Amino acid sequence: MRKVLQPLLLVLVLALIPYVGVTYGKLDYLFGIIIPYTAVAILVLGMLWRLIDWVRRPVPFRIPTTCGQEKSLDWVKTNPLESPSNPFMAALRMLSEVLFFRSLFRNTKAELHGGPKLVYGSHKWLWLGGLAFHWSLLIIVVRHARFFMETMPMPIQMIDSFDRFLDVTVPAFYLTDAIALAAITFLVARRLSDEKMRLLSLSTDYFPLFLIGGIALAGISMRYVTKVNIMPVKSLTMTLASFGFTAPEPIGALFYVHLFLVCVLLVYVPFSKLLHMGGIFLSPTRNLPNDSRAKRHVNPWNPDIKFRTYAEYEDEFREKMKKAGLPVDKQ
Amino acid sequence: MNKFSQILGAVAAGLAVFIAAWFFIHAGHGGSTSAHAEDPAVAAATVQPGGAPIDSSKCILPVEQMRSSHMQVLDKWRHDSVRDGNRVYVNPEGAHFEKSLNTCLGCHNNNPMFCFMCHQYADVKPTCWDCHLSPMEVPQ
């Protein structure tokens, strides 16, 4: 239970810091300008540091994990998507993984049925929950462009109007708000409901979920319930987008809770499991075409060993071998 | 290092250069960031919105509350007046107002851009003018 309550408490304390700081300390400038710039700098530099480190690791051989027939002889039926033989198909496989989580679609669940009967069944809930969570998060992030640009570009406007197409409540209800909250709830419940998952889950699994949940709750509350004046918010975000340092006008403390938690998330990304965002593209088991049979891959730092063939050996000792009566290849 | 990683490295480097370039381009305009304050839209939000009311002495609710929640007030007004026929609004101080856009525009009509300045700046498109005549369309 500690590994659930600890991150929850941590998120609550993190949310309280800007609330107290802005309400009692008048630290608007710190939380509105200094911390966001610092957070973005840490995110960009941290991501570059981690990814460049990974990119520089040599990958001399093909080590793809496949679940399909590799390309070999013409009459053997191949599975080009599951076992890609060229970079294009490998990119397709990577994209289908990133956009649709295909490997999670194969998720199975092992259950004991009535004693010694072990049954594996298809279990798509994690795939569905993960997909809903990631996609709604992406759409939420994209439609925040409203704050960082003077007018939203056409494609983002379309996403935005699609997101609010139900056209209920004022301000218009965003579908993704509800989907994201439902998905986070499911993902937390999934870890808590199953004995095995409870054992496997660490506090670093719960922390990002609670953090993103906190961000979403603060944002939704600002939009629909407690309300903040949006003009100083836009003014502050436009200042941030144009790298300005003008002090923000007074905004509700809840906005700073939202912003500070986002900053914590940005800083947290390069040093945690959330780096799967960038790391998935660098997974050698995913991004390499499986062409070991078609192409010879030589380890580039193999030491230059002088091999001695049997022919050379025989050349040296032919006479002696003949004298000893040993068979030789060449007379 | 495989080829894919090299491409990704190049993309990352390009992204870094792009961000740096963006920074320098916008840093050049750093001086004009304060121009946001002169922006009529922001000025309207920071100073009195649309100036002081003309004939009525008071707004229905405090300024801060109006700025953040006017859309919910108007939505409730619409619901009450159109669905329930209740057209009288009593504010927390006991003053009576008619639930009508004209109540707002009675005071805030000195500037035909009163609504649009903030809404354009925040990129918020209300549905009021789908049915109602907007102040911009009324000949002054």
Strand portion of chain B = under 5%
Record the strand order, biggest sheet of chain B: 1-2
How would the global form of chain A be characterised?
elongated
What can be said about the biggest beta sheet of chain A? 2 strands, antiparallel
CATH class of chain A: Mainly Alpha
Which H/E pattern describes the elements of chain A? HHHHEEHHHHHHHHHHH
Entry summary:
With 331 residues, chain A is mainly alpha-helical.
Provide tags for this entry.
heterodimer; A: 331 residues; mainly alpha; Fumarate Reductase Cytochrome B subunit; 15 helices; 4% strand; B: mainly alpha; 2 domains; two-stranded antiparallel sheet; 54% helix
Describe this structure in words.
- The complex is a heterodimer of chains A (331) and B (140).
- Chain A has 15 helices and 2 strands.
- Chain A has a single domain, classed as Fumarate Reductase Cytochrome B subunit (Up-down Bundle).
- In chain A, strands 1-2 form a two-stranded antiparallel sheet.
- In chain A, β1 and β2 form a beta hairpin.
- In chain A, α5 packs antiparallel against α8 (175-193) and α8 runs antiparallel to α10.
- With 331 residues, chain A is mostly helical.
- Chain A is elongated and about 105 Å long.
- Chain A has helices spanning 2-23, 28-56, 87-100, 102-105, 125-143, 145-148, 154-163, 175-193, 195-200, 203-225, 230-241, 253-268, 276-279, 284-287, 310-323; strands spanning 108-113, 117-122.
- In chain A, 60% of the residues lie in helices and 4% in strands.
- Chain B has 140 residues and is mainly alpha-helical.
- Chain B has 2 domains: 1-34; 39-140, no CATH class.
- In chain B, 54% of the residues lie in helices and 4% in strands.
- Chain B is built from 6 helices and 2 strands; from the N terminus they run ααααββαα.
- Chain B has a two-stranded antiparallel ribbon with strand order 1-2.
- In chain B, α3 (40-46) packs across α6 (114-122).
- The longest helix of chain B has 26 residues, at 3-28.
- The radius of gyration of chain B is 23 Å and the shape is elongated.
- Chain B starts with a helix and ends in an 18-residue tail after the last helix.
- Mean pLDDT of chain B is 74; it is low at 28-55.
- At the A-B interface, α2 and α11 of A face α1, α3, α4 and α6 of B.
